[in-house]
Amino acid sequence: MESILEEQPRVIQEFQKIINSNMLSHAYLIDSASSKIRQQVAIWLAQTQFCDNLQNGMPDQTCQRCKTIAMGDNPDVLEIKTDKQSIGVDDIKYFKKEVNMTATQGKRRILIIDEAEKMTNAASNNLLKTIEEPEGNLLIIFLADSAKQLLQTIRSRVQIFHLSNKSNDDEVSSLVEIGFKTEQAETALKISDIKFLQATTGESYKQLSVALSGWMKECNQNKINSFIDVQTDIMPLVDNKDHQHLVFDMLNQIFSDILSIRYNVNKSLLIKEDVLSNKSIQQIVSFSDELFKAEEMWKSNVAFQAILEDLSLKFVG
Ligand SMILES: [Zn+2]
Q: Which of 89, 140, 184, 189: CA 20 to 30 A from 104?
């Protein structure tokens, strides 16, 4: 287990900082790297909550409590693992009961959901309320190959940590060939799939990102101009379905970035400032839901521009 500190120093340090400042949230989604490494990070995170010799936010990994967690023998640290094709609503209900979420005696309980992308929509929806209004001292850790595989409604309610993936060098270089800077390509790949990114260029990607955060700033000021921005600033940069896909990915990321900024987690990807500073967390969560619905409408072929204009009105209202 010592290897995890060398394997994923960046994420471990970020969590260490969070734990030291007592800012641990109640739900995390950890993706990328391998399933084994993801699981090790989750175990390490669980150990930080139980270790007898926690020092500077780091568990010793050698005390009895740490060992028990690593062996899967701590009844307060529950891991959902399945060989089935999906994790259904009944599985979630069963584990929620197991983890005894109604008991609020303040005792720390941790639910690790392995292969969270296997959750059915019903299973995900069943967890939404738990994530929104966590009971007792529950910490939920979702593990997935890619955060993008989870429902947007889940993604917008958790903090997402991407483990370092050393294997996407090829994708990065293919983007560098179409004008992305290396760092920009690495960031973009955390947000969107390569097939959509290949339909753009480094410069267009940057322009689109600037246009979308500008649009959000207008919404933040409740300016009705934001409605016009769609036509004047965004649509000229969006030529096809791939670009439209990028817009949805980037908007999702902006909402997630805002939460990171508000929770003082130094991991926002697209924006460095809180572009919706006048809006409450509840409003941002509800914007996120509107965005999810908008994306569903788009998938059923409603015109893209009309969808963004409609979002403008909702974000301003
Ligand atoms: Zn320990």
A: 89
Q: Are residues 138 and 179 part of one domain?
A: no
Question: What distance in angstroms lies between residue 91's CA and the mean position of ligand 1's atoms?
Answer: 30
Query: Across-strand partners of 111?
Result: 78, 140
What would the two tokens of residue 75 be? 């009844």
Query: Distance of CA 288 to CAs 6, 72, 214, 260, 265, Å?
Result: 35, 35, 17, 14, 19
Q: How far is the CA of 72 from the centre of ligand 1 (A)?
A: 14
Domain identity same for 281 and 297: yes
The domain boundary, picked from 114, 149, 164, lies at 164
- Residue-range definition of the domain harbouring residue 156: 3-164
Q: How far is the CA of 2 from the centre of ligand 1 (A)?
A: 13
Shared domain check, 85 and 107: yes
15 CA from centroid of ligand 1 (Å): 16
Q: Return phi, psi of residue 8, to 5°.
A: -130, 55
Ligand 1 centroid – CA 55 distance (Å): 9
Beta carbons of 288 and 152 less than 8 angstroms apart: yes
Å from CA of 147 to ligand 1 middle = 30
Tens of each residue's pLDDT in the chain, 317 residues = 447 888 888 899 999 999 998 888 889 999 988 777 899 999 999 999 999 999 989 999 999 999 999 999 998 899 988 877 789 999 888 888 877 654 545 678 899 999 998 898 899 999 988 888 777 788 999 999 889 889 888 998 899 999 887 556 778 899 999 999 999 999 998 888 787 899 999 999 999 999 999 999 999 998 888 889 999 999 999 999 999 999 999 999 999 899 889 887 777 899 999 999 999 988 998 998 899 889 888 887 899 999 999 999 999 97
pTM: 0.57
Q: How many domains is the chain built from? A: 2
Q: At which of 140, 164, 188 does a domain end? A: 164
Q: Report every protein residue that has its C-beta within 5 angstroms of ion ligand 1.
A: 51, 59-60, 63, 66
